[in-house]
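Figure 6 in text form: structure in, sequence out.
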């Protein structure tokens, strides 16, 4: 015995005009749905690619700016700091400035 919903569906299916009962329409609907999903996927991937390019460009720009700032702060480029020289201390980056702790081996 068939469920009652199947009988109702078959009755309504046979009431439709012959042109609508062909197998063409379900295939067309499935094809259009597939194209819609592909278009949505393309939009998402394109947005991600553009965001990645923007992020990469931003990182390269920041690295370039940091390199320029560090180049400007080199000891040759900046004037001597009088506060270190006035009290007899070594300036950071010079030979007399301690850069790391040395631990004696036992």
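Output sequence:
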């Amino acid at each position: 015995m068939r469920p009652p919903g199947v009988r109702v569906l078959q009755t309504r299916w046979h009431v439709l005009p012959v042109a609508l009962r062909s197998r063409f329409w379900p295939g067309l609907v499935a094809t259009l749905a597939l194209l819609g999903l592909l278009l949505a996927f393309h939009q998402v991937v394109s947005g991600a690619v553009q965001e990645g390019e923007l992020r990469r460009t931003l990182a390269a720009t920041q690295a370039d700016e940091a390199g320029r700032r560090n180049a400007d702060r080199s000891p040759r480029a900046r004037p001597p700091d009088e506060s270190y020289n006035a009290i007899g201390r070594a300036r950071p980056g010079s030979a007399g400035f301690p850069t790391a702790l040395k631990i004696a081996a036992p």
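Caption detail: The two ends are 93 Å apart (CA to CA).
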